[in-house]
Specification:
This protein is of the alpha+beta class. The protein is built from nine helices and ten strands. Helix content is 36%, strand content 20%.
């Protein structure tokens, strides 16, 4: 990171965006069928067809994608049901962290945080902090029923309230929609207009019959980019971090 980037996380996030070499290109490796724009107050299904027209699943064989996808079946999405990790699942987490650490995105995030004295300077201690931040289990509704990784990337369902929280990752959205478990209901109307293919969407969907009224996701980004960006924001300690990613102005919400 440059001196300017070290002093300004928004500049660092823009640099991180440029470092995402595994980001997919719309119209080449994937395409979307937006169909409509709607008000967040409108709960009707305005999208007859799925959100994803296609995804080139060959990209999922890339090391960071493959090790990320291996984690998606390690959790019970229902709040109030405790999670626990098998030895195989712990090995999958270690493999994922080792794989993402071997990318420009995560090395940049590590350097930025270490030089700003937000994390330990030794890389092995940083990886331990990374594991704790993302994978340590904590209480949301019952003991050990949640983790940072599960909430952000996989999503959680509250059967009492019939609501969905989290689930911000486009790969999880794609797989759940493909499996018939997720029904895309439309894209939220936005003030800003972008000429390029959209890589940040705010949408409404139902997952296992429970609605997520408003949900924002980056689309086509690599697992290492999302891990790096969110890790930087989390350890930096601010609840709101406003950044520009490509043409998109985004607020990253963290609860350190």
């Amino acid at each position: 990171p440059s001196k300017e980037e070290l002093a300004d996380i928004a500049l660092a996030a823009s640099r991180l965006w440029d470092l995402d070499r595994n980001r997919l290109t719309r119209g080449v490796e994937y395409d979307l069928d937006i169909q409509c724009e709607k008000s967040p107050h409108d709960h009707s299904d305005q999208a007859e067809r799925p959100l994803f027209k296609f995804v080139d699943e060959g990209v999922f064989q890339k090391p960071t994608f493959k090790s990320f996808i291996a984690l998606l079946d390690n959790y019970t999405a229902t709040l109030g049901v405790a999670d626990s990790y098998t030895q195989q699942e712990l090995a999958e987490m270690a493999r994922f962290l080792a794989t993402v650490m071997d990318t420009a995105c995560m090395q940049y995030a590590y350097e930025w945080l270490a030089r700003n004295k937000k994390v330990p300077a030794q890389q092995d201690k940083f990886v331990a902090a990374l594991h704790s931040a993302w994978f340590d289990l904590y209480r949301r509704k019952a003991k050990n029923d949640s983790s940072g990784f599960e909430h952000v990337f996989l999503g959680e369902r509250d059967d009492e309230k019939q609501t969905v929280s989290g689930l911000h990752n486009w790969i999880q959205l794609y797989f759940e929609e493909k499996a018939g478990q997720l029904d895309y209901k439309g894209k939220m109307r936005q003030k800003q207009r972008y000429a390029d293919a959209e890589q940040f969407l705010t949408i409404q969907f139902e997952w296992h019959g429970q609605e997520k009224f408003i949900s924002s996701s980056l689309i086509g980004t690599s697992p290492e980019f999302e891990m790096a960006l969110l890790t930087m924001c989390f350890f930096n300690g601010q609840e709101d971090t406003r950044v520009t990613l490509g043409q998109h102005k985004v607020n990253i919400k963290c609860y350190p």
